[in-house]
Sequence to fold (222 residues):
Amino acid sequence: MSEEFVPYTHPITFSNDETQIEASTSLNQTMQSRRSVRTFSDKPIPREVIDNLVRIAASAPSGAHKQPWTFAVVSTAAYKAQIREAAEKEEYINYHGRMSDDWLNDLKKFGTNWQKEFITTAPYTIIVFKKSYDLNAIGDKAKNYYVNESVGIACGFLLSAIHQLGLVSLTHTPSPMNFLAELLERPTNEKAFLLMPVGYAADSAVVPSIDRKPLSEVLLNY
Fold:
């Protein structure tokens, strides 16, 4: 075996098919309960939990293992206030002209609007930046591959981990998002991909009554 490779062993094993099926059923039930929540508590979260969430997200596969992401964790009141102000400015324009009537109609069942209180209420907001390319120490560019796909998978890891740790989040994309890189003084090769508040659901939190597509509509067998 090449010295560039190491043996692989999976940390999780099952004694038989039945126990694996039971585990998959339990995990499915857990993940089916995941919802996007817009009303947050300001209850604090240990910082080590957030750091571990980022570690989990950053364990995602990526094109050529380039890991083209940066996770900006925002917890200070001043930064959260600035981000909310800028996000609401863009969202107000979206809701009052940029969005089509069809788009606005599709959003009605979620009860959303241009106001984004969750940015300042949630104890943490994680802003995921994608790196279209890398920069070395002298400023030369290095190519990254499948950037959107890689960062999207990392965000999926992050959402799953947040839910499994008893926390809530939602995916927010105030469009355009250029202001996030400017506010956080990120380099030119980083573009905001997703804004995700992380915290506990408020006691008053509610979610719309919606259904997910059944397996028969999303699974193809060949």
User: Anything to note?
Assistant: The longest strand covers residues 190-199. The two ends are 36 Å apart (CA to CA).
